[in-house]
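Support reply, case 0932

Customer input (verbatim):
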Amino acid sequence: MAIDRFPGNLRVGVLNKRVDGVLGNDPRKAEPKVSLLCLLSGFQKFRLGTQAFELDARRQPHAMLFHSKVPLSVVYEVNLGHPLIKTVVSLSPEWIDMLDGGQLPDMVSADATLDYRLWHPAPGMTALVNDLVESTSRMCRMTLGLDLLNHAVEDLRALSQNDRARVQRARSFIHQNLHRSISSRDVAQACGIGLRTLQRLFADHEGTSLGAYLRLRRVEAGREAIVGLGLSVAEAAYRAGYSTPENFATAIKRAYGVAPSQLRPPEETSA
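Our regenerated output:
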């Protein structure tokens, strides 16, 4: 990869060649940085620290933005492309304040050392990547690299807003259908979202899996039916979508440590 280095530790790299294997499998250390990887053609599999990633542009462009907070080892396991077309824009974390809005968009936290986001870039961003690949001017590559990074941030913010709307739609469907024995797949189909995508969105935005969220809302609805509405255990189980009162009792015991009958406030006795 040809890399241009600019003041402020800004680096812009372009790779456009036929590749049939790993270019170099010796681990190397990458300093803390913000880095944007854009793959127009080909396939790569690599590791950042302990986290494994794949960039697959065999059908459509693929991009990744990451923020590493400590030095991390980088190991490439697969590099394939006829050609492999890739751009990299990297800069020091101090540059984050210079981005539009002064901060990075919503990211996935692998752990305390690495935040990242993978996505398929919009046509406008893909056009910028093509311009960067074809540019022969060093100054143009610097300008295009910064434009590309800013465009990626805008892309991801737009995606994050759309993702939040999709999660809200799923939450609403769950709330309105707790009386049914709905599954995670039912929620995804009702919202017109792929199951794996919706599971990822719930992990990102709710901090839990879709299945765990559904179970929690169901047991909370059952508890409210007993405590707030005064329903019997069997009625509460039906209202919360449990197949049997026994399944409901097991869920209540697991969540609250008591039997469903113990949730009901003691009846007042007349003097």
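We compared this against your earlier run and they match. Two observations from our side: The chain has two domains: 2-160, 177-271. Helices lie at 123-134, 138-176, 184-191, 195-205, 210-227, 233-239, 245-256. Please reopen the case if you see a mismatch on your end.
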